[in-house]
Specification:
The chain is α/β, with parallel strands linked by helices. β2 and β3 form a beta hairpin. α1 packs antiparallel against α9.
């Protein structure tokens, strides 16, 4: 495993700035880091009494501090509008629990993975789902534009279900509670947390499939992606991410979890935009 020497990366990033980049206000160092996330994905990002809170909020605030930004501003953006906000320059990077996929990597630049996931299926309390075959003849609720939306579109005929699409996860959960849908699909960590907090539903079935979360940037933001990834690597090495997971999700994590695994190079290994060049980073 590479040593994490984050200070060197931060110094190199600052030294590499040219006058052209300095005139670019895409990443103003004297302003909060501007990111976007759906606030309906508990416990990743949700609206608390004093503003946004959750695993994702704590993580992005820590990153902002480590890269020298005065905090972070998180805009509440529905997942269906997240990519447009990124590519148009409305936000600097995503802060959603975003699946790393080959299709998305064609238009966006990913960091290395930092959380494992898969499809989690929520049903009404007491309603069993032991396999995907149990979806036959039923209605599956998904969030519009998500990986589960894509999965459902590709598998509806195979498993014989129909779909209802919603703009937020709470709406899809409500569809299950009110019997408009048999099940709601979301990322496993999100689905598990929702089921733990709501006695009307349960996490009936999970399908870990090797997918993982990462942050996304515009294609031209290679240097800034690398800077942020250096901060993420430090959070893995010093135990910050593990502590945040225990705080917001609870439970143990496996020894090979991306929450504590520092990957070689920059970006998501095996995907477009990955740079395998070794690097050393020193964490403060």
């Amino acid at each position: 495993m590479k040593k994490v020497l984050f200070t060197l990366v931060l110094t190199a990033f600052a030294a590499a700035q040219t006058p052209a980049f300095a005139a670019d206000d895409a990443h103003p160092h004297d302003k909060p880091l501007l990111v976007g996330s759906d606030f309906g994905v508990a416990p990743w990002m949700m609206r608390g009494v004093n503003g946004p809170e959750g695993f994702g909020y704590d993580m992005i605030m820590d990153i902002a501090k480590r890269i020298g930004r005065p905090g972070a501003q998180v805009d509440d953006i529905a997942f269906s509008g997240l990519f447009a906000a990124l590519l148009s320059g409305r936000i600097e990077m995503t802060a959603n629990p975003l699946n790393i996929t080959a299709e998305r990597a064609k238009t966006m630049l990913y960091t290395e993975p930092f959380m494992a996931t898969g499809n989690g299926f929520i049903t009404a309390k007491g309603t069993e789902m032991t396999s995907l075959d149990d979806l036959k003849g039923k209605v599956l609720a998904v969030n519009r534009g998500t990986t589960q939306d894509k999965w459902g579109t590709e598998n509806a005929d195979k498993y014989g279900f129909t779909m209802q699409r919603f703009d937020s996860f709470p709406d899809s959960v409500q569809a299950v509670i009110t019997k408009r849908a048999f099940a709601a699909a979301n990322e496993i960590p999100t689905a598990a947390y929702a089921a733990d907090k709501n006695p009307a539903i349960e996490l009936a079935f999970t399908e870990y499939d090797g997918r993982m979360f990462g942050y996304a940037f515009r294609k031209e933001d290679v240097k800034y992606r690398d800077l942020v990834e250096g901060a993420v690597e430090c959070m893995k090495q010093d135990g910050t991410l593990k502590a945040l997971y225990e705080k917001w999700y609870g439970g143990d994590i496996p020894t090979d979890s991306p929450l504590i695994t520092v990957y070689p190079g920059y970006g998501a290994p095996g995907f477009e935009g990955y740079d395998a060049t070794p690097h050393d980073v020193v964490c403060k």
